[in-house]
Design brief:
With 445 residues, the chain is mainly α. The protein has one domain. It is 82% helix and 0% strand. The longest helix has 37 residues. The chain is globular and about 55 Å long.
Length: 445
């Protein structure tokens, strides 16, 4: 008998269900993060500090855009998961049709805005003069591919809602290979520098989406979807937005806070800016474990809530916390003690490596703490209670992370290690916030 590709969250071992789903999710996230990392790696080998700063800052902004899209798409993932748990495949099909048209409109608007505002975005981010034009070039090329980025994340969100994380892993794996080849050819051989890296990224994602559509046309899904359902269904739109908008607002505020930190560090000098750019690429990999945990918990909880199995949903939360923290301890050691070695992968410049390693020392405790926070976020998202997630994201970004980062950057003889320490301080606040929320929502959840 052929094994089902969709994970059944409502039956069997909680740990095994989460692991079977989380591993391909983590694999896909690793490969997705490899886009910007490969760009930085190749540009770091063939370019200079200005090129590294441009790719670091530009890709950080595009990562923010991608996270916002992914967060909004989480509304579709949760609603589809709940309909699957309720055994209502037609409703799930209505959600898919609504999702496609909703995100197509969002993609068109975002493309126009980002193309027009690329120069202003670089000004807001306080990009060093040496890398300003390169950063604008990177942003404009990547912005032209927003619809492709949205298409991939919508397809992945739908598949994860039905419990299939293997196909998104396959799609992003193809894209990663194409991106590596593109970077080596355009940056290494053709010497197109930052522009070549951006073009390679968009080309890779385009290939991934084409393959995804071709595969899905032949893959049988537990969703009843037809052409007539390719319309905006008001009921499903409301559900998607009720869950997705607060998550997207939360993620937007978090990412804006990191961009503010980026601008603070850009003001500290070119080496600090380049070092932070390298560190952020390493951090993007470090944060993949808690991100995969969050997505897995959201999908797990949504299906079990739909099936009326709330105790099993809660068990999934605590199982994910324990497993995530165990892995987080290992990653903490790698970031704290091996920061210089990890940074040397992306740059040969001793000053840039030293600045990157300094930031990682302050940041590394986040590897453990954030698994607790992200599991809690996933649990509330899966229950469709995303308002607390939004409140936590906004309050932590502007009440804790930014003020603490500014304070650390103003200290006498300050370093990137002190600025990096602002993130785990912020996460401690987030954990305490959700402890209070669990008590408030205890009966409702």
């Amino acid at each position: 008998m052929k094994e089902k590709k969709e994970v059944t969250f409502t039956e069997g071992s909680v740990f095994q269900s989460l692991v079977r789903f989380a591993i391909p999710v983590l694999g896909a996230l690793i490969l997705q993060a490899a886009y910007g990392a490969v760009d930085l790696l190749v540009v770091g080998r063939f370019g200079n500090a200005a090129s590294i700063s441009a790719v670091g800052t530009g890709s950080a902004f595009m990562q923010m855009v991608t996270f916002i899209i992914t967060s909004l798409a989480m509304g579709s993932t949760v609603i589809i998961g709940q309909h699957i748990g309720e055994q209502k495949p037609e409703k799930a099909g209505d959600t898919v049709g609504t999702t496609i048209l909703l995100f197509a409109g969002i993609g068109i608007v975002m493309t126009v805005l980002l193309e027009l505002l690329a120069n202003q975005i670089a000004v807001i981010l306080k990009v060093p003069a040496e890398s300003f034009d390169l950063t604008v070039t990177y942003l404009r090329i990547c912005s032209a591919g927003i619809l492709i980025i949205i298409a991939y994340n919508v397809i992945s969100g739908v598949l994860r809602g039905i419990g299939n994380a293997n196909l998104p892993f396959l799609f992003v794996g193809v894209a990663c290979v194409v991106n590596i080849v593109g970077d080596l050819v355009l940056v290494g051989v053709c010497r197109m520098d930052v522009a070549g890296a951006a073009i390679a990224t968009i080309a890779a994602q385009t290939v991934s989406v084409i393959i995804a559509v071709m595969v899905l046309m032949k893959h049988k899904l537990p969703i009843s979807f037809s052409k007539k359902q390719l319309r905006i269904t008001k009921e499903e739109l409301k559900k998607i937005l009720n869950v997705g908008v607060p998550i997207a607002v939360q993620e937007t505020m978090v990412q804006i806070s990191f961009l503010v930190i980026n601008s603070i560090i850009n003001n500290m000098g070119l080496n600090q800016s380049a070092g932070y750019g390298v560190a952020q690429k390493i951090v993007s990999f470090i944060m993949l474990v808690p991100s995969s945990v969050m997505q897995s918990v959201s999908a797990f909880v949504s299906q079990n809530v739909g099936a009326g199995k709330k105790d099993r949903a809660k068990k999934g939360l605590f199982t994910a916390m324990a497993a995530g923290c165990a892995i987080g301890c290992v990653i903490f050691c790698a970031g704290f003690f091996g920061g210089a070695g990890l940074s040397s992968i992306f740059s040969d410049d001793a000053a840039v490596i030293a600045q990157s390693a300094s930031y990682l020392k302050g940041f590394s405790l986040e590897c453990i703490l954030t698994c607790i926070l992200f599991s809690s976020i996933g649990y509330f998202n899966g229950n469709g209670k995303s308002i607390p997630v939004m409140i936590q994201g906004i309050s932590s970004a502007f009440g804790i992370r930014i003020p603490v980062s500014i304070f650390m950057s103003k200290l006498p003889n300050t370093s990137l290690m002190l600025v990096g320490f602002a993130t785990p301080i912020t996460t401690v606040y987030g954990i305490l916030f959700f402890l209070i929320c669990f008590q408030v929502y205890k009966k409702k959840l």
